[in-house]
Write a structure and sequence with these properties.
Strand content: 15-25%
Bound molecules: alpha-D-ribofuranose, calcium ion
Number of helices: 13
Mean pLDDT: 97
Number of strands: 11
Strand order of the largest sheet: 3-2-1-4-5-6-11-9-10
Low-confidence stretches: none
Helix content: 25-40%
């Protein structure tokens, strides 16, 4: 199965950045993932698109625009679909706060929101790109599924899809389902059955990608505008997880970027992943099968991480913003 690590190995060898679209529901961990993406010379961010998830679409869009202002991401930003393909919306204000990105003050958006919808912007980027584009989705997969339904002719321009979502072993929003998949199981089913290379960072790896309070302090000590905000995002994100007994903040979304950039830090297994779209208790479950009973492998599932190496990656990334003048919050 063609996998994204081949693409990134070639990019490292050639020094040519890989074009990428960032789609998410920021969200503290989405924001930290986008920070990691912007800091990497291996990624060329061509567009940012918002989806409904952690908070309503209006809030995640506003957050996406503020994050791009903070980080200096000057790619076009477009608003996605207002709610899942078939499900009723679910939000996570209990984790990310009423704004969806509570905590530190952030600069106001710079520039205008694209007049295009997320699907239109994604399609435009795919059409105009000389080479296939990687889509990194760190929220419900509603926009990506809509893109695949509306523009099947553009699939050859998608190099692959890196997903934060699911969990082979367990869920976090229900016993069986992880939040991003549960919000829009039909969208996930469309993505995982698309035939495109899918790399899935589920809870199996993201709950091992724990960032500890001592890591927050190392990041804060970098003492540039971005580092100070990232440390506060981690403080806020950890506040909820500490109540559940976590030793650190499980920064889910950055794994979907880090596993592309540094596959050597991760354990990855190919398997067939089926999305349960029915069931009173199991809707939204990602069922992983390596026996072949459910069909050939359709995803590379990231199952474990070198935690210390991952924490060091985030620390190096915030240092890349030394000298960047964050706009006034
Ligand atoms: O289950 C974790 C996922 O749900 C992360 O993407 C987080 O941002 C929320 O969207
Ligand atoms: Ca997210």
């Amino acid at each position: 199965m063609f996998d994204l690590s081949t693409l990134f190995a070639a990019a490292r060898a050639s020094g040519r950045a890989v074009p990428v679209i960032l789609d998410g529901d920021p969200g503290h961990d989405d924001a930290i993932g986008w920070m990691l993406a912007k800091a990497s010379p291996l990624l060329d961010i061509r567009a940012v698109t918002s989806c409904a998830g952690n908070q309503t679409l209006e809030k995640t869009t506003y957050n996406a625009r503020r994050i791009c202002a903070l980080l200096g991401i000057d790619a076009p930003i477009a608003m996605g679909l207002h709610h899942p393909l078939l499900s009723d919306p679910i939000t996570a204000g209990n984790i990310h706060g009423q704004s969806g990105l509570d905590g530190p003050r952030l600069p106001e958006p710079v520039g205008e929101l694209s007049p295009l919808t997320a699907v239109e912007l994604m399609a435009k980027v795919l059409r105009e790109s000389a080479e296939p584009v990687v889509i990194v989705v760190t929220g419900p997969e509603t926009n990506v599924a809509a893109l695949l339904l509306a523009h099947p002719e553009l699939k050859p321009k998608i190099a692959g899809i890196s997903v934060m979502g699911g969990g082979i072993a367990y869920g976090n929003w229900t016993a069986a389902a992880e939040f991003n998949i549960l919000v829009d199981p039909e969208a996930a089913e469309i993505v995982f059955s698309s035939g495109l290379p899918v790399q899935m960072c589920g809870l199996d790896v993201t709950e091992r990608a724990l960032i500890f309070p001592e890591d927050f302090e190392r990041i804060r000590a970098v003492d540039n505008g971005v580092a100070r905000v990232v440390a506060e995002w981690l403080d806020f994100f950890y506040r909820f997880h500490r109540t559940l007994g976590y030793a650190g903040a499980p920064v889910h979304d950055p794994c979907a970027i880090a596993s592309l950039l540094h596959p050597e830090l991760f354990t990855i297994r190919e398997m067939h992943v089926a999305i349960e779209t029915r069931g009173e208790y199991c809707r939204g479950t990602t069922v992983g099968d390596t026996s072949g009973r459910l069909g050939p492998a359709n995803a590379r599932c990231v199952m474990d991480v070198d935690r210390d190496g991952f924490a060091a990656l985030l620390l190096d990334a915030v240092k890349a913003y030394n000298g960047w003048e964050v706009p006034q919050a």
